[in-house]
Amino acid sequence: MAHSQALELLGNITPEQFLNEYWHKKPLLIRRAIPGFTGLLSPEELAGLACEDDVQSRIIEEIHGIWHAKHGPFNEEDFATLPEAPDSEHRWTLLVQSVNHFLPEASALLQQFNFIPHARLDDLMVSYAPDGGGVGPHFDSYDVFLLQGQGKRLWRISEQTDLTLIDGAPLRILQHFDTAQEWLLEAGDMLYLPPHLAHWGIAVSEGKTDCMTYSIGFRAPKEQELATEFLGFMQDKLSIDPAALTGRYQDDDLTPQAHPAEINEAMVQKVESILKKIQWSKQDIVAFLGTYLSEPKPDVLFEPNKKISKRNFVEKAKHTGLVLDIKSQMLFSESTFYLNAEAADFTGVSASLLQTLADNRKLDANDLITAHPLNEHLLQQLYDWYLAGFIHYA
Ligand code: SIN
Ligand code: CO
């Protein structure tokens, strides 16, 4: 990807400039980021998704100034109780998470953000709100691009440092909000917000089209979570430098103690010095990141493809090319490829093919044909991933 080429999506600045000046630092309003964009699905289709078991959705309501949150899956009755023409006494919004796992167009939209590493990308959330609806004034802990679909949304941002939240609310709502700037976004406009910047998006229907906003969200694990997950990942792999090993716990210096039940200080010190010998390598960190960041979320399931012979699979793949399943996450580091938390090592031409698959989420038939003869190990791996439902024919 040419990072020195200006992108319309970024308001005709280059990804380099964007990362340098705005990413993680300050907001950027981009008028006509995607000219002609009016959204990828209708309010009815979004509501339909929110009724599915494997889709994470929420309805947020503000009734007489009190915030309420309900979690999906929803049914028609849940929607029937919501006011069609909301007023200041009762406003609401529907939020649907990971729409990129269900809609190929949504997955393709995320690919326009390929100037940010896939390892940082979280998901595409789509919201629907009739007039006045929204999730209230708040701040997020991660970067987000807010792309306006149909209708309009008034975005307010604040420079406040007071980030006190309303106590006991079922979602994070700021107690106070001082508007520093506001913009009315129309279809195709986009607002980038860095983490921790207070913002407030209010749906504006003007008696016509209700508002739908597409949030391209990024993941930024908490340091504590990284540490806990890393130790979990390493629990069977932690090693002690063999040169530093002395064998077993030793206490030839044991002295009598008043309380036989007491864990004595000498024991604590000895164990402390044993534990200090625990080590991990940079490779362990890479393996952890590849596995952890490509791990499907708990609600993500893959449907295995129908079993066919490896020969037939290869023949057909050379005809059609291959694509990642819409829910697959593929990352790599040097010669190790991580697909949905499974690691595999490849070098040479095979590695170049897999890099293309990971970067573009697809491998053209041509790529497979020109790489002839294909390495047996690679074919076996592709075949296994195909059977697992991680990849499909294009
Ligand atoms: C939305 O309501 O679509 C956006 C939510 C947000 O502000 O993060
Ligand atoms: Co937000």
Question: What are the defining features of this structure?
Answer:
19 strands, alpha+beta, 11 helices, binds succinic acid, three-stranded antiparallel beta sheet, Malonyl-Coenzyme A Acyl Carrier Protein, domain 2, Jelly Rolls, 394 residues, 2 domains, eight-stranded antiparallel beta sheet, binds cobalt (II) ion
Compose a concise summary of this entry.
This protein is an alpha+beta fold.
CATH H-tier superfamily of the largest domain: Cupin
Total number of domains: 2
Oligomer: single chain
Helix count equals 11
Shape verdict: globular
Q: Give unreliable regions as ranges.
A: none
CATH fold name of the largest domain, please?
Jelly Rolls
N-to-C SSE string, H for helix and E for strand: HEHEEHEHEEEEEEEHEHEHHEEEEHEHHE
Average pLDDT number: 95
Largest sheet: 8 strands, antiparallel
Which CATH architecture of the largest domain is right? Sandwich
The strands making up the biggest β-sheet line up spatially as: 1-9-6-11-5-4-2-3
Determine the fraction of residues in helical runs and give it as a percent range: 25-40%
CATH class (first level) name of the largest domain: Mainly Beta
How many angstroms separate the termini? 22 Å
Bound heterogens, unique? succinic acid, cobalt (II) ion
Rg value:
26 Å
